[in-house]
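Could you please review the protein record set out just below?
***
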Amino acid sequence: MRRRISRWIAVPLFAAALAASANGHAQTPGGWAATATPQGNAELKLDAKQSEAVKLVSGYFNTLKQMKGTFVQTDPDKKRTRGRFYVQKPGKFRFDYGAPSRKIMASDGRLLRIKEPDQSNEDAVELDNTPFRLLLKANVDLLRDARILDVQESDDLVIVALQDKSPDAPGRVQLIFTKKPGFDLKEWVVRDPQGLETKVEVADLNKTDALDAQLFVWDAGNVFDKK
């Protein structure tokens, strides 16, 4: 029997953002300090340069078809977990956590499920009730569909903090992209409605190799055998 989890899940999904330290700041690659995901709900009034940065992020996800790589997740209690991830647009992804967790988190494009290897039950939530629907949909337009809370840009980084305009997808995501040698996702931080943050860093990105469609087919009986 499947247990339903809350609408918001602070999970890794893609890469890019910042861990907030106790003083509300995070240290990003290259030592450039970036503010943590904004606490308030005020939508940023974008200037022309900031609008172009948001369009650049939308374009990145629109051109993305598939991706795989490794990740390091840092939970609100500072616990770190490593693993591998796979993404296939629209809406499909899978995170395989390493030992000792060995947890599987996967989306078939409709439901996001989480399964522990030693538990018979699974947790599930509608993908449309998570902020990640904005980034994995077929047509990504963050200026249209998201509330932009913060935009920062340096010589090396672009940082965008956003919140889904849909009331069914609470929480916020802050994305960090590197600009050199090319524009690419590096980290992200998810903040839930209670203010707890989960940081995910990605590496070893591969956007060219085809992915096995069976990776995203959820079958509780053999999901742990699919790699």
In short: The mean pLDDT is 80.
